[in-house]
Automatic annotation (TrEMBL):
<protein>
    <submittedName>
        <fullName>Uncharacterized protein</fullName>
    </submittedName>
</protein>
Length: 84
């Protein structure tokens, strides 16, 4: 998939995790996504972005299992397509 799609997916995951991070339980994922997005903008290497989007997908999928309405299916589809 294109670098544009993975960056958009990373930004969408970051946005969702930031909104869900009221108690600080997703600080690590938020910090990691911020870091890899900044790194990608500096060096253009998407490898870290793919890795952190995959991790965010896992975290969000687990959350969706517990609370189905907390994570939109469209976000999960976006992440899956970007990682395909």
């Amino acid at each position: 998939m294109s670098q544009i799609a993975i960056v958009a997916a990373a930004e969408a995951a970051l946005d969702k995790l930031t909104k869900l991070n009221k108690k600080g339980e997703y600080d690590q994922q938020v910090n990691d996504l911020n870091w890899v997005l900044a790194s990608f903008k500096n060096d253009g290497n998407p490898e870290g972005v793919y890795q952190k989007v995959a991790e965010a997908q896992t975290v969000l999928a687990a959350l969706k299992t517990k609370k189905p309405r907390s994570v939109a299916k469209s976000l999960m589809d976006t992440l899956a397509k970007a990682l395909a």
